[in-house]
Amino acid sequence: IGEPVRLEWFNPQGERIVSSKRMTLQTESFRSRLIIYNAIIEDAGIYRCQATDASGHTEEASVVLEIYQKLTFRDVKSPQEFRHSETAEVVCDVISSPVPVVVWYYQDNEITKEYHRRFRVLPNNNLQIHQITKADEGVYRCEASVEARGEINFVDIAVVVNGEFLISFPFIYTQQA
């Protein structure tokens, strides 16, 4: 708009931004730059820059800031223990933005419904094993990927099944005379 007398930035909530340790405004005569240090997911959104000239005329431009969360496994425990015959849920807490695609492997084979009817990948990406047995023990691989960025990672989780406990009482036979 020529020579602006005021350049202001507004955050996605519509609040005017003032310089702080995390957000700095660098303003020259006809140009302004907003710098966000250590940006977090919550900083994403539409930012507006508003320029006002001496006559009070205002023009604005907006910038869409997208922030992507790196593929991250959060506090995945190994081993994970279950009781024989229970419905087990092997936890694989993984986050990313966009949402990752999760695939489970056991003994280097992908776990699919067609071949493993007792196994199911839940909406939260955990692996459910119906009526787990000692034969299900071993190391499971939770593999997550974000194809848009070509990002892929995995975590191996040892699964331990505590067997059924059989209590037997010795039979004592006594012969009466």
UniProtKB/TrEMBL annotation:
PROSITE patterns cross-referenced by the UniProt entry: IG_LIKE
Record's subcellular location: Membrane
Ig-like domain segment(s): 1-64, 69-153
Membrane topology (UniProt): Single-pass membrane protein
Domain of life: Eukaryota
A Pfam entry, by short name: I-set
Keywords in alphabetical order: Disulfide bond, Glycoprotein, Immunoglobulin domain, Membrane, Signal, Transmembrane, Transmembrane helix
Major subcellular site: membrane
Plastid recorded as keyword: no
Protein name: Neural cell adhesion molecule 2
Lineage of the organism: Eukaryota, Metazoa, Chordata, Craniata, Vertebrata
Gene: NCAM2_1
